Amino acid sequence: MKAWFRTGTPWIWLNAGAIALCLVMVIGVLGLILVQGAAHFWPADLHTVQAKQSDGSMKRLLAEQVRAEDVGAAVLRDSGVKLESNELVYQRQLLKLGNRDVYGRDFAWFLSHDLSDRQEPLDATVIERREWGNFYGFPVKLLEGDKVVAEGAQLWQELVVRIERSNDIHDEINDIERGEIGVINKALESLRLGKRRMELDGAPAAEIAIFEQEAQQQKAELEASYAVLQQKLEALYEQSRRDNLIVVTAEGKTMTINLSQIVHAFQPNAMSIMQKIGHYFGAIYAFLSEDPREANTEGGIFPAIFGTITMVLLMAIIVTPFGVLAAIYLREYAKQGTVLKIIRISVYNLAGVPSIVYGVFGLGFFVYIMGGSIDQLFYPESLPAPTVGTPGLFWASLTLALLTLPVVIVSTEEGLSRIPSTIRMGSLALGATKSETLWKVVVPLATPAMMTGLILSIARAAGEVAPLMLVGVVKLAPSLPIDGNFPYIHLEQKIMHLGFHVYDVGFQSPNVEASRPLLYATALVLVLLIVLLNAVAIRLRNKLREKYRSESD
Questions:
Q1: Same domain for 125 and 156?
Q2: Which of 251, 256, 414, 440 has its CA 20 to 30 A from that of 551?
Q3: What are phi and psi of 69, to 5 degrees?
Q4: Cα–Cα distance, 120 to 127 (Å, whole number)
Q5: How far from each other are the two terminal CA atoms of the chain, in whole angstroms?
Q6: What's the whole-number average pLDDT of the chain?
């Protein structure tokens, strides 16, 4: 046995077992996220059931079964449930009722033996609304104003067409409000700030008067354009409010839903398997391409995806040159000694500093000191409202660059140290200067190590949340940092981030059951995004490694 231990074989098997266990755990977590997140988009069937209420009465419900679980009788009694039998274990089912504006809740638990007469009506309809979540019911007739335009067999086909038309109008309204009106508002604000800047610069009264006269003329033109857009908006709002859908709930309550509040409608019980597959991928596309709604418990996550990618790319652009240059100086130029050892120890220690500390530093130094100074120098006319001295995309990227800088420095230094001294000596022997040897021989050969540091920094930055909450990431950003207004890229704007979105949906949502599947789906997208970014960086690193290996051969 001792001889066997001396061979080192047990430690090899121990390491292999530890790696295998880690892989199983990682695959298990990813599998859980995939199953829980991806299953949310499948159009589940709707059931009508007779449900026994707490007062003993029976109520007809139209609902989607979410999940079932076994629970002990003692737990049910402690929660105030009255049990009529002496069973030790009961099965209960979680039903998604929808109709939050009707029932005051859209999820409810029922004991299985309190549910009876289960049916699956083909005309049961899911109506996805912009507010109040889903509505489950039965469409009766479609109204245009006070006129009935469709009912019976023709209702569904006409409803689909009019919902599509209503969504087109909604998109047109958003384009006008966020685009054309936004441009006008920005131009009006520029005129106001232009006058204030002239006053702060001490311009002569005559120049200010001339500017004010020209500004009044431009303002009149802008207000005329605004009035035209406002009339167009009023016409679009009138068109969007024209159509109404009369629906009936399972218990017989009649309601009216304006089509401007409907995002999508479908009848899952009447759909074939191919139609459900098409709906499934359409729902995934909508989740990835739309804005969030209902306190982030409905809609999509596109702004969070865009913000995460933009911030990580900007961080990589910032951290790479600073990290590489710092590593080159420390390895190639700095004088070896006590001071350099202290610097290296400090760099290593910076890698272990809690990320929230970087967030506090970024808020205090980058936002308040640097941003405030820039506002004082270049945007005094906007004060006291900050322009740059407020949390935003650039400061968030800069904070993450500072957070991941030690990783890039250490990786680059390790790569430089692995370059054999014979290569340096050979280059110098051929007449190259130290600078030429460094930049044309050593640095290219160390590029794969630099890419390794960048890969590690991207993986960490994409998943960070704590520092970003202080320096520019918010729950909901009304617009993207890139638009059609000059200078087109607005680094001072606040952004959304997938990591913060996961935190917000998971821990700040007012509707836990509704947000649970979106939590898993968002986490899955974040993991896939990190894998994609790392895969691109790894591919680039491997190409560089093969290139310089072949050149060195």
A1: no
A2: 414
A3: -155, 155
A4: 17
A5: 46
A6: 86
